[in-house]
Amino acid sequence: MEIKKDSVYSLVLGGSRGLGWASACKLASSGNSVIIIYRDSRSFSEEFQQKIQQKNDEGLDLMAFNFDALNEEKRDVFLDQLLEKNCQINLLLHSVSKGTLKPMQGKHKLSSTDFKITLQAMGYNLYEWVSALHVKKLFAKPAKVLAFTSIGSSRPLPNYAAVSAAKAVLEATSRSVALEFAQFGITSNCIEAGVCLTESLKQIPNIDQLIKEVQTKNPFQRLTTPQDVANVVYLLSLPESNWVNGTVIKVDGGESLN
């Protein structure tokens, strides 16, 4: 599929798996035209494009571009394509998952480079995209900015220091976007999902123990699913949510109550 002239798109950064993919499919199944930006190998990309085609055959308006969302040059080339087709973005969802899970001590401890890469990818990259879209006047009015955070932004977890720092930066950035871009009809919010069995989660050490603990303390005795989160992304895409701005919304079934 090609970018269609004069179209309004929802843009999902990091949407090939997990929460991003579930959200992209939910938005598309609800009548939105969705563009996914992802970064992966050629073999995965071929399989993923087949999944996209299957969704297109089902009547969903989905397309995907394989490039690094952190690459400024490639980002601008993509945005110029939208500009040439006179398109607009009504929702930007930041679901980039590129971080380092290492302890803060020992032989393989976190390095300053690990922190920098994680902070950019999962933290202030949100602002880089918001700014670029705004400068090129690609945001619709109104428009929504959403980003996925985690409980790690405020609670320490083993081997999670770099990601925790990035999520704290992400939330602070989102609040500032909410304040400074409101004059342009743009709202910004974060979604804090409960523990959800995604590929990213599986990389966390001792994850089996964490899952058992979460299932025990969650009022519903289960983990959060990608669809649970995607449903809230959809709710926040609706005009009825236009007055929700600058907050972190928990989607965890009450997991954080205990």
Tell me what you see in this structure.
This protein has 258 residues and is of the alpha/beta class. It has a single domain (8-250), classed as Rossmann fold (3-Layer(aba) Sandwich), CATH 3.40.50. Helices cover 42% and strands 18% of the residues. The chain is built from 7 helices and 7 strands; from the N terminus they run βαβαβαβαβαβααβ. The protein has helices at residues 18-29, 42-57, 72-84, 112-135, 161-180, 207-217, 226-237; strands spanning 8-13, 33-38, 62-66, 88-94, 139-149, 186-193, 248-251. A 7-stranded parallel beta sheet has the order 3-2-1-4-5-6-7, with helices on both faces. α1 crosses α7. The longest helix has 24 residues, at 112-135. It comes from Psychroflexus maritimus. Keywords: Oxidoreductase. GO terms for molecular function: oxidoreductase activity. Belongs to the short-chain dehydrogenases/reductases (SDR) family. This is SDR family oxidoreductase.
How many structural domains in the coordinates? 1
Q: What order do the helices and strands follow?
A: EHEHEHEHEHEHHE
Rg over CA atoms: 18 Å
- What is the residue-averaged pLDDT? 94
- The number of helices is 7
Unreliable sequence segments: none
The CATH class turns out to be: Alpha Beta
Our estimate of the beta-strand percent is 15-25%
Spatial separation of the terminal alpha carbons = 47 Å
Corresponding CATH architecture: 3-Layer(aba) Sandwich
CATH superfamily: NAD(P)-binding Rossmann-like Domain
Structural class: alpha/beta
Strand order of the largest sheet: 3-2-1-4-5-6-7
Protein name: SDR family oxidoreductase
Family: Belongs to the short-chain dehydrogenases/reductases (SDR) family.
Pfam family, one: adh_short_C2
GO molecular function: oxidoreductase activity
